[in-house]
């Protein structure tokens, strides 16, 4: 019957405002021509320290609410950070503390991204893109210009 025993797919819970912001970002990339520029994308990922253990039978090609397992943002975990871009992959950095604007800024300053991106594309010849996490949008972070070394 084409069923596989596997863990559920994970679906991020997004409200309508978050969905609209993602759609606007994609539209802006295409309509402004930024999609053709050198962009470095960064993101953090949480690794849960306990097993999910909620595997289920899922039919191949099936798409319904039963194949998803919504996750809470409040579980024991560790955080990792990385960045990718055209011909670039940063080191993967494990973050042992809660990530805030200070930790986030330190990770970016100390990972070599700015120096490598400037060497590959010239100073100011690239864009740095992160998601809308709170630590990325603090007033301290907005005052920083990561493209300046």
Question: Can you describe this structure?
Answer:
This protein is globular. A hairpin with a 2-residue loop joins strand 4 and strand 5. The termini are far apart. It has four helices and seven strands; from the N terminus they run βαβββββααβα. 8% of the residues are buried. The protein is α+β, with helices and mostly antiparallel strands. 28% of the residues lie in helices and 23% in strands. The longest helix has 17 residues, at 16-32. Strands 2, 4, 5, 6 and 7 form a five-stranded mixed beta sheet that branches. A two-stranded antiparallel sheet has the order 1-3. The chain has helices spanning 16-32, 101-110, 113-121, 139-143; strands spanning 3-6, 39-48, 56-59, 77-85, 88-89, 93-95, 127-129.
What descriptive keywords fit this protein?
alpha+beta; disordered C terminus; 5-stranded mixed β-sheet; globular; 28% helix; two-stranded antiparallel sheet; 4 helices; Nucleotidyltransferase, domain 5; 149 residues
């Amino acid at each position: 019957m084409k069923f596989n025993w596997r863990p559920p797919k994970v679906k991020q819970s997004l409200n309508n405002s978050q969905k609209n912001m993602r759609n606007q970002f994609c539209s802006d990339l295409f309509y402004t021509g930024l999609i053709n520029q050198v962009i470095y994308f960064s993101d953090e990922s949480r690794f849960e320290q306990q097993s999910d253990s909620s595997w289920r039978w899922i039919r191949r090609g099936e798409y319904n609410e039963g194949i998803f397992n919504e996750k809470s943002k409040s579980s024991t975990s560790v955080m990792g950070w990385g960045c990718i871009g055209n011909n670039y992959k940063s080191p993967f950095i494990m973050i042992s503390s809660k990530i805030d604007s200070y930790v986030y800024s330190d990770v970016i300053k100390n990972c070599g991204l700015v120096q490598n991106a400037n060497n590959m594309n010239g100073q100011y010849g690239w864009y740095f893109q992160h998601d809308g996490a709170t630590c990325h949008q603090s007033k301290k972070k907005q005052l920083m210009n990561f493209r300046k070394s």
